[in-house]
């Protein structure tokens, strides 16, 4: 989307967007806030920002995490 904003969505084995499994949530690791999904270009997506880390959970079991990794440098 941009350098600061991205989206997470599910795809099938052919790379075609597919609805997330039932009971999937995306949570900001810092705040504990549940990130609401939005449909973007036909795919149910979670919008994330580079400055936070996130967890994807199914029935409160973490299946995936995204750790803040953006680096900045002054030259």
Automatic annotation (TrEMBL):
This is 15878_t:CDS:1. It comes from Funneliformis mosseae. The lineage of its organism: Eukaryota, Fungi, Fungi incertae sedis, Mucoromycota, Glomeromycotina.
């Amino acid at each position: 989307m941009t350098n600061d904003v991205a989206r997470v969505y599910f795809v099938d084995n052919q790379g075609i967007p597919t609805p997330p499994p039932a009971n999937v949530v995306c949570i900001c690791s810092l705040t504990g806030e549940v990130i609401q999904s939005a449909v973007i270009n036909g795919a149910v997506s979670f919008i994330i920002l580079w400055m936070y880390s996130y967890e994807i959970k199914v029935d409160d079991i973490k299946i995936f995490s995204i750790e803040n990794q953006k680096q900045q440098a002054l030259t």
